[in-house]
């Protein structure tokens, strides 16, 4: 079958949760996913009640099994284009049609091009204090500048450790930022960062271009968050002044029949948040489908 009530592009926490809710509402659903989730490098996820410390891959595996049990169609691949109607063209050339579309394709993290950052991402180079701060509490923590909100990140992380060092890297701090860091007890070490020092598969420190090595056991980076919104843009969905898709709390976009959930819409959504957004979007989608079915039934009965 290539015709569905709903096609979901992206099978992370948002997409799989939406699929589960829709399937339990007896909707036909296809989930298309490339199998490359944003949190793949992380060994554990946190802050998800009853799933604390679970591997992200285990959550997705369990979710896929659950929606399969309810009759979902799971497609390993990528939606590369969606035509009005909606017809989704996949990376292998397959075409699927649906009455509604949910985009849950997530976002991409743009991190500073410092040797060691990408290689250690999700291990001891981290981005979310609420996700990973507890695991490195009281350890020597570094915060790498060069991205927006790095100073705010350093100020926040101070509550997890008394030993937090901010490396401005390519940033120039304002007087107000310097004063706030000093008042909060966060040390600032100027100079461009050359690389992260890794020994025996563990982060050992941050090396500056002058050769100075500052011992650190964890480094936090506030990445530039780039939504994977190509499908939303191609569908003509309105964007806000920040460059993110406009949507209401239920994930409705400006384009009728097109919904969004998870990090593709909300850069701050954690796994549990994304799952909740997927559920809300699924209920909104089903409600809209029911409304359309009622309108069609009324029109048909009047013709008779």
From TrEMBL:
InterPro entries: FAD/NAD-bd_sf (IPR036188), FAD/NAD-binding_dom (IPR023753), Ferredoxin-NADP_redctase_2 (IPR050097)
Pfam families attached to this UniProt entry: Pyr_redox_2
Catalytic activity: [thioredoxin]-dithiol + NADP(+) = [thioredoxin]-disulfide + NADPH + H(+)
SUPFAM superfamilies on file: FAD/NAD(P)-binding domain
Keywords: Flavoprotein, Oxidoreductase
Domain FAD/NAD(P)-binding: 4-277
UniProt-recorded name of the protein: NAD(P)/FAD-dependent oxidoreductase
Organism: Microbacterium gallinarum
